[in-house]
Write a structure and sequence with these properties.
Chain lengths: 110, 237
Amino acid sequence: MLSKELVAASAEPLILSLLSGGESYGYAIIQEIKARSKDRIQWTDGMLYPVLHRMEDEGWITSRWVEAENGRKRKYYSIKKDGRRALAQQREQWLTVHSVLAGLWKERYV
Amino acid sequence: MFELDQAISGWRQQMAASGIKMLDVLNELENHLREDVDQQVRSGLTQQQAFDAAVQRMGESKALKREFRKVNRHRAWGFRNNPPALNLLAAWLLLRALEAWPILLVVSSYLIKDFELPPHILGLWGIQISSVIISILLGIGLLRRKNVFRVCAIAWFALFITGTLGHLATHGLAGSVYAHLPHIPASATIQFTAFGFLRVSYPVFYAVLLFNTAMNFFGLLLLARPSIRKLFRPVCV
């Protein structure tokens, strides 16, 4: 299980990365992240929405209501150009941390 | 017997009571809850078990409210890092939007004057009062924001007050009807005189006024578009 802080910090790049593969809605996003992390990343479901709304405010993603086949309305989010730019930046930062940690650990533990 | 719809409407009320009142947000959260319940019922839980678990996973309403409030505060006070030129453009659009109301008033007052209609027939005073109230509310809303728009709002108020007082002094109460946005009515009056002097027909004069009005509403419409609103978020909460 990831710590609360890391879960919060990684929410944006996770959502952006997921949406860069196509539009999705809240419930599906949570399920996909859960599945991909093998249940190690667990968001409090409701907390996803303020993050999505903030990202929409930033102009990174956009949303639209779509009626699903069962008649239910879902709010789909998709990534925008600014979002892709933000993702590229965040990707670089995460990769930097990753490569530094990997280098350090390689020296110490191998 | 457990009633899912009833339980969900109770949950919505509880969310609303703790301060999450935006319909769009509630609908989105409700949709999430229903998806979750469906999924769990498919995997063998009873509706009630599924509902209870989904509510728990959704999180405590107060904590959720706190998170949403952060977003809203960000919306209300956030100042996007727009380039200054964009902020100036926003301010210009906003001023045009504000002008829409007084211009309406000016047009109707010209109509009344030229066609000698009693003011109450056109609801002139209704328009006047509502336009002033709306303008002032907009202005106060702007004053609460700490950025370039605040400066614009102050400037607009100053123009509004000095212009109105000036017209009251020189034209009396009736004349001040023209003065709700000082520079626009003033320019309208100048146009009027100039057009009279040049003997330009009234249709042309009204066409100019209507064009002005249309431009103002165009500004309002631009502000209403989501893509534009995003740029000018500080003024369009």
